Amino acid sequence: MKETLKKISDVFKLIFGYGIMIVLFIGGLTFFGYVAALIIGGDAATAICTWIYKSLIPVIIYASTILILFGLVTMYLAGEKALVPEKKAVREEGEK
User: Is the pTM of this model over 0.85?
Assistant: First the structure.
């Protein structure tokens, strides 16, 4: 059973890794769209910014939300714990 969960976790980790990389890359490309709109100016700039804001940004947000779900499922299946302090070794009686 653990072996099966590990295989599923590895597949989800692969999907999560590549997906987040793609989403971050596309999010970075929006910067260049806004810079191009700033250079062009006028009505064309308004159209570019509106398209980026109404078409591209919602897709990025939904995709990243779904990919974060993959990441959380991956952590759960692999038995990993994030943001949890590790228990410190028990001190011997002589140490203080």
Answer: no
Q: Which of 52, 23, 22 is nearest to 35 (CA)?
A: 52
How far apart are the C-alpha atoms of 23 and 13, rounded to whole Å? 15
Q: Are 71 and 16 in contact (CB under 8 A)?
A: yes
pLDDT bin (cut points 50, 70, 90) of residue 61 is very high
User: Token pair of 87, please?
Assistant: 């228990």
Helix (H, G, I), strand (E, B) or coil at 92: coil
For residues 16 and 73, what is the distance between their CA atoms, to the nearest angstrom? 10
**Helices (DSSP H) in 41-56: which residue ranges?**
42-51
Give the chain's length. Answer: 96
